[in-house]
UniProtKB/TrEMBL annotation:
<feature type="region of interest" description="Disordered">
    <location>
        <begin position="263"/>
        <end position="284"/>
    </location>
</feature>
<feature type="compositionally biased region" description="Pro residues">
    <location>
        <begin position="275"/>
        <end position="284"/>
    </location>
</feature>
<protein>
    <submittedName>
        <fullName>Uncharacterized protein</fullName>
    </submittedName>
</protein>
């Protein structure tokens, strides 16, 4: 991942859980229990709240502890969390054991829905650094059923705005915007979401200004096989083994020349030797 360059995951709680499971894998070289469990990073309800800390505070604290336990010296998870203000931001910094002068960087930014929130996430990211490789964005679950038709318009408008606003910075760093497709599995919204995904995919193919990270096809295949993938039938949150599938798909795309996802993640060496760093990317 160090050779790939900095990567941002911007999205809602589903994206948070994917970020956390990916983070654990990169730091330790393995995932936690595939069906969740005590202290699972893919399920905040597994963390007991106290008088001072709610379940999500405990989740983030445990995530930081996991990086400290499994990451190499000099690694860390820096986060800001205020649930009442809908504020969740995190920066994972993993130092390579093979070359301690270099780090892999992974970020998370919570957003719910709407054009302003998407552009706000990109503004925040560009304020953190200019050498991004991938800005991965998802908005889906917080759009009510009668507003799902707004998803494609919001995403396309945000992508157009970002390319107009950060033309020079994107060109210098080789930054690519990525749409992580909707994974909401329920049948009553499937057709609407499929239509929104079609519009986004057509825009991406026509303009070349957006890549599509197709997590929806993975969950649709599982749903079609009647697999139990979510916490409960009405849920949009998944058991950890589904986040594993999405993360392995991502690693196979980012690190195509490494043999095996575990090698690509590299608890001992979190880089991707087969992928050259973008122009102007820094190891730190």
């Amino acid at each position: 991942m160090a050779d790939v360059g900095p990567v941002l995951f911007a999205g809602d709680s589903v994206t948070r859980y994917q970020f956390m499971t990916f983070m654990h894998f990169l730091a330790s070289g393995k995932y936690q229990h595939p069906f969740d469990g005590s202290q699972s990073l893919s399920d905040a309800t597994e963390h007991w709240q106290t008088k001072l800390l709610n379940q999500y505070d405990q989740l983030w604290a445990h995530a930081g502890d996991q990086v400290e336990e499994h990451g190499s010296s000099g690694s860390g998870l820096h986060y800001t969390h205020n649930r009442s203000a809908h504020l969740e931001r995190a920066h994972l910094s993993l130092r390579l054991q093979a070359d301690t002068s270099r780090k892999a960087h992974l970020y998370y930014y919570y957003l719910g829905r709407g054009l302003d929130e998407i552009t706000g996430a990109i503004k925040w990211a560009m304020g953190q650094r200019q050498d991004w490789r991938y800005l991965i964005v998802n908005v889906c679950a917080h759009y009510e059923k009668n507003r799902m038709g707004d998803i494609s318009g919001d995403v396309i408008a945000a992508v157009q705005w970002a390319h107009e606003t950060y033309t020079a910075a994107f060109a210098e760093a080789g930054t690519q915007l990525v749409w992580k497709s909707c994974t909401t599995p329920q049948d009553n919204v499937r057709e609407r979401l499929d239509e929104e995904e079609r519009k986004i995919a057509e825009y991406a193919a026509a303009t070349g200004s957006l890549l599509v990270y197709d997590t929806r096809t993975v969950i649709q295949a599982a749903t079609n096989q009647h697999l139990v993938t979510t916490w409960s039938p009405g849920e949009v949150h998944y058991l950890q083994f589904m986040y594993e599938q999405w993360n392995d798909l991502l690693l196979n795309i980012l690190c195509p020349d490494r043999e095996g996802a575990a090698s690509a993640a590299g608890a001992a060496d979190p880089d991707c030797e087969g992928v050259p760093p973008p122009s102007g990317a820094e190891g730190e």
